[in-house]
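Exercise 7. Given the encoded structure of a 180-residue chain, write a plausible sequence.
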């Protein structure tokens, strides 16, 4: 059985009292946050990679390439264009060394072509609805040249035939693609 350190024992009559250990000295918030940030990186957090990415990849690569996933120590990085993918391939070893030096548990990089869809401002949904080809109250009605059924003029201008014929075309394209 162990004994408490002398600083925790107080004499009381013929016996001793055990006093609680003195509290550890207070640490600065900055020190706590730095330790937490380091632990966050070591745990393989994608958010930590996203946060560090501009410093790790550099300004030119970071703008066109981004980390996508981290699984079992393999970081998948997506490039927005084949030229940026090639730049990533050429700098793979330096990037991997920088990632490891920052404390991230990455053992390899997987470089992918990743097209990011840039979403434009949708604007007013009412404007989009007013331009939609199926609006017969705006575009009027016409007869489909393929099937002879009535359809909005906007559909004829957009596809060259009605939406039912368009749907049939898309279905036959999908079926012929599945046969190959």
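Solution.
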């Amino acid at each position: 059985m162990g004994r408490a350190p002398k600083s925790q024992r107080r004499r009381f009559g013929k016996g001793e009292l055990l006093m609680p250990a003195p509290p550890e000295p207070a640490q600065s918030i900055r020190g706590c946050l730095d330790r937490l940030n380091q632990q966050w990186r070591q745990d393989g957090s994608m958010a930590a990679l996203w946060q560090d990415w501009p410093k790790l990849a550099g300004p030119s690569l970071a703008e066109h390439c981004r980390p996508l996933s981290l699984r079992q120590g393999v970081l998948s990085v997506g490039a927005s264009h084949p030229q940026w993918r090639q730049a990533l391939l050429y700098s793979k070893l330096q990037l991997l060394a920088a990632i490891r030096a920052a404390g991230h548990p990455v053992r390899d990089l997987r470089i992918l072509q990743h097209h990011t869809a840039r979403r434009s401002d949708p604007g007013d949904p009412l404007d989009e609805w007013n331009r939609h080809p199926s609006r017969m109250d705006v575009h009027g009605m016409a007869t489909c040249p393929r099937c002879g059924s009535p359809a909005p003029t906007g559909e004829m201008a957009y596809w060259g035939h009605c939406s039912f014929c368009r749907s049939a075309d898309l279905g036959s394209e999908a079926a012929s693609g599945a046969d190959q």
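Remark. The first strand starts at residue 9 and ends at 12. Students should compare their own answers with the one above.
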